[in-house]
Design a protein that fits this description.
This is Adenine DNA glycosylase. The protein is an alpha+beta fold and 375 residues long. It is built from 16 helices and six strands. 39% of the residues lie in helices and 11% in strands. It binds a DNA duplex (11 and 11 nucleotides) through helix 5, helix 6, helix 9, helix 11 and helix 12.
Amino acid sequence: MQRSTSTAEALPLPDSLSTQSPAALLLDWYDRSHRVLPWRITPPMAKAGKRPDPYHIWLSEVMLQQTTVQAVKAYFAKFLTLWPTVGDLAAADTEEVMKAWAGLGYYARARNLKKCAEAVASQHGGCFPDTEEGLKALPGIGDYTAAAIAAIAFNRQSAVLDGNVERVISRLYRVETPVPAARPEMRRLVAAMTPADRPGDFAQAMMDLGSTICTPRRPVCALCPINADCRAFAAGDPERFPVKLAKKAKPVRYGTAYVATDAAGAVYLCKRGDKGLLGGMTEVPGTDWTTDPGQNQTPPFAGKTTPLWRDCGGIVHVFTHFELRLAVRHAEVERDAIVANGWWEPRETLAAQALPTVMKKAIEKALPGCFAKTS
DNA sequence: CACCCGTGGAC
DNA sequence: TGTCCAAGGGT
């Protein structure tokens, strides 16, 4: 493309722009454009030496695993109100933690959160380890979270690689290897880029860049502080990265959920086992969930009488690796009509139970409005 | 390494 | 409407 003489081309670039490293450019951008988040110490305070509370960083990082900032904010505030310190969380009733986590998903995180708090309280004197290795030895803390806490809470020069950073790095270097196979390579690239000064802010800057500028679709490269170093921007194909493998089709499973109420409106609930899907959470009794739509219509509990179940229609709930189509049935029964390992929960306290979203949907289908706020 | 593990929002 | 995806970890 032919270009006429432009003023911009005629002007010499300032030395600061032509010689700064990508990390320095990114930190300058972060100083100006960082997001303000409840668990974050913003750059002026961070540069003045103020460190965030490791408990806050750990709690937010675990909540943010595969979960959006928007969804986490309210849960983060609730947890700090209920349990202001890691010692408080360690001393909490696990059932109360599951109730507080209900709706956020990936419930193994909540079980590991509690285990981790107990380990920090009993084995580390209530203080989080300040190294990657020490952190990674704790339940629920893997490669990413250990590096992130070490960098953000303790200013360690650790290589933080999450989904955002993968996207930024894969575009900067046009990494053609598909994820997750490309992770070791990308980790080396991040490590080489991470500065000794302000590594915590650098990690957060990479994530902010990935979430606001270097987005999965329609990245705003014109506003990117390191576009001059970006090979994908130069090639004009940033959206092609990171390269991913095709994913498998999602199977459908079928089942039936039984919402039983007593004369006072209490609902019969059960507790799921600690392992597997929705582990440790509360549910209404139901059949197994199988791939055969014709199966599973026999109630999985006994009773002295046989209730007449009313067909309430169905719900569809999409999990990570399958879609669930649940038939919902309701009956008002005598309390001795159900003999199982559960309990009758009064209507007033139903919403506060450790019910995952799929179960709230099913109960709502049988008892419309039962989770409506009554204030 | 492949698979399991939730949910809600954006396009 | 379907598809993708979001600060991943455990096994």
